[in-house]
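just leaving the lab so this will be short. below you get a single protein, a line of residues and a line of whole numbers that encode the local backbone shape. id like you to explain what the token line says about the fold, in plain words if possible. thanks a lot i owe you, the record is right below:

…
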Amino acid sequence: MRVGVVGLVRGLYLAELCLRAGIEVVAACDTDAERRRSARERLPGAVLCSRWEELLHQDLDGVILANDFDAHAPLAIAFLDRGVHVLSECAACVTEEEGRALIAAAERSAASYSFAENYVCHPHTLLLRQAVEAGELGRISLVEADYLHGLPPDGVAELLGGPDHWRSRIAPTAYCTHTLSPVLALTGAWPVTVAAHVVDEADPRSAVVMAVRLSSGALALTRHGFLQGEPDSHWSWLSVRGTRALAESLRAPGERAWSVRLRAEAWATPDGRVREEERVPPPFIFAGEPVERHAEGTARVIEGFRATVEDGAPPLVPVRPAVAASLTGTAGAVSLAEGSRPVPVPNVAGVVTAPG
């Protein structure tokens, strides 16, 4: 399997995981000359270029898009139309028109579209999904999902990247797929409406909360941005409340942050006793070796992309859920601008998604 990579910041990390898995990285692109020079030793034999269009003329089975957050859809469409399988990071699209064009391209192409949403594949999300799919929680009523950074002001400034960085172009609600994609994966539902709220009016870009009504009738509360007090772990916390039990990831440092707590009240258990347990994820083996917990989700994404390209397996996150999660952030920006009123999320499920 031969792949190209667009963007050599996050993309270089993804490329190195590909190499570990025995995937050939034959071409890579970045507009920054220094990044291309730095990648030379780490991607031996790869063609390095400054314009992504040059990759359209390479002999590729797949391409990994890790360029600017808000600039993925046009590239994905171009590669899909060339019959090249696409693995796309972060936002799938930034407008409804762009999202629908991406869906159309993916569904007419002989190649596949996969969304590189690693938080769907992290250990704590997979443990929660197992509990949901086993019916242990009952009907899902409320899901909460955080993607929060507890950083000092200089750390925030460094992560934001300055006025010329892509983060300065996006709405505070836009970077929401690390919360919304796990919600959609856990519930099997689609977003119907979103009401977005700034957390701190004195610093309106620092953190937002979105209340998302799902097609199942459940409510999702998602929080992302910069708030203090987060554990030194992976910045993600998930909680799923059902009619019979609660399951949530642990707010804890280190390894325990990947574990899940499950609690069922006495009335809901066969022996009439409260059931409280902590579930620890098993090790994950990638390319013959155990993977560090923080890398497990991304390694699973690479493994899944390979299975899709080589074996025809379904994408771990296909195009419609990717677009739905991304457009929730777009609709959330409208909600913010209009006093936090509930705003419809474009229906890209391909079916009617009325609650009930």
Remarks:
- Confidence is low (pLDDT under 50) at residues 352-356.
